[in-house]
Each structure stands twice: as structure tokens, then as C-alpha cells.
Amino acid sequence: MSFFKRLFSSDKKEANFTEEARETLDKGLEQTKTSFFTKLTKAVAGKSKVDDDVLDNLEEVLVSSDVGVETTLKIIQRIEKRVAEDKYLGTDELNRILRDEIAALLSETNTHVASEFTIPADKKPYVIMVVGVNGVGKTTTIGKLANQFKKAGYSVVLGAADTFRAAAIDQLQIWADRVGVPIVKQQMGSDPASVAFDTLQSAVSQNADVVIIDTAGRLHNKVNLMNELTKVKRVMQKVVADAPHDVMLVLDGSTGQNAFEQAKQFTAATEVSALAVTKLDGTAKGGVVIGISDQFQIPVKYIGVGEGINDLQVFNKYEFVDSFFK
Question: What residues form the annotated binding site for GTP?
Fold first, then answer.
């Protein structure tokens, strides 16, 4: 039994990852799985052995499934190595080998595995600064994240530092009301750093556990974005010395290759430490999770697999791959 087969055996599944969560994940990845395995079946049709033709077809399947060119080439090279070592590799074994190699790639970036919404005990308040372009589900992700942290027993404060759009402040207020958590906001056009400062001061005075700061979704140019986010971070550190503890980039999984471009732009503009990939339930482009995680070497922390308030999950690489190849 291979290392990854042992790793993904049923007794290795996270005890805290509930059956309900697994069902939601399975349903959320349904379109991606159907599309991927339909293509894969065609790629190996009439073949009993993994040869150059099968590998060429597999490369096309992975690229068209939005895994990304660089990550696809890595996977193909790993499989070529396996073929060379095993001399004969049947196409019936391809699913297992793919599963092993994708698991290996995800394990290189997502070294920490969690199934629950937790924060480090020594970081209070734990400050998350959220970045991403408009339309990716940034505000919704913040609301769902606040809900999950609150359900886990943490006190949460939201900061509406996206002062570029009045709608962004209004949307975050709606989520704050829905979840039942306090929000700190100012008028549209206010200094985002001032909002962040006030939010952290409020959180400290309330002895809050978690602070989630929204930021402007525009990507007008990297210099201005970098300057703005750097200022926000610098001002926050006047209140909480090591804030933010996470700079989380929200990406829309349904945009496929466009999500790669957004990740490239934001990682060039600021130090992104975590990713949240949304809208995986409404797309066949779930392969972006694998490619973006590998290409940018930034851990995927959360995934959105449904429209419900509870359908934001902590990304668990074991459960994700298990669901994908189920």
C-alpha cells in the first residue's frame, strides 16, 4: 500500500470533519468531478497501458480542467517517472496514481490540516485582512467566516475598510446584522487605515477573539494598491503589534484561469498568506484549487462549496482529494 493510499484511508479521515460537511463538499465538487472524469474516460478510451498518447491526452484534460499549465506539467512529470519505474502501468491504475500525485502536491503547500474554524491561542485578537477584486464573493466570504467563528465560540468584530464603494459598507452591515456581530464603519470615501485602526481599538476594548477587515476590491494598479494595503497594515500595528496575522486573498473558483491572474496581481502587490476559493459549487473549474495552491505556494485555507451561510469550509486537503476521486 502506497504512502498516500495509507494517508487517505478511512481511518485517517478527520474525526471533526462531519458527514454533513462531507456531503456538502461532495455536492459542491460534483460538476468539477463529472467534467474531469468524463474527459479522463475519453482520454484513455481503447488504451490498456499508460503511454505517451495517454499522457498527452491527460495533459490536455488537466489543462482544460483549469489545473494550470505549470502544475499540469509537474503532475505529468511525476507520472512519467512512475511509468519509467514500473515499466508497465495500466490505464486502470491511472485514477489511483493521479490521486497520489495531486495529494503530494497539495501536501507540499498545505502542510497544516484542520477541519474546524480555530485560531492560535496566543493571538488575541486574531486579525485577518481580506483582499480580492470586486465580484469574487469577498464580502460574502467575510460574513460566512464570521458566522463560522461565532459558531465555534469566538467573539468577532468586522471592519468595513472598503470605503471606495458605499455598497461594500452596506453589504458588510447586512452580514454583520445577519450573523449578529459588531461592525466598525465610517462614511464612503473615508481613509481605510482609519477604519482599520478604529476596528482594532474596538476589538481590543471588547476583548474580541477575531477581527476581519474588508479592503477595497479594485485593482487599479499595483503601486497604489500596495501603498494602501501597506498603510492599513502599518496603522493596525499601532494597536496590535503583529497584525494582520493573515492576509487572505479571496478568489472566484468559477473564473478558472482568471483566478490565476488575480492571484498573480495580488501576490505581487502584497504579502498574501492564505487563500479562500469561492463558488466551487457552481462550476466545473474546481481544478483551480490544485493549481493555485501549487503555483503560488500559498495555502488554501477556506473553500466555498455552496450558497448557504454554513457552506464555507476549512480546506482539508485529505477530504478534498478523497471527495474529488470518490
Answer: 132-139, 214-218, 278-281
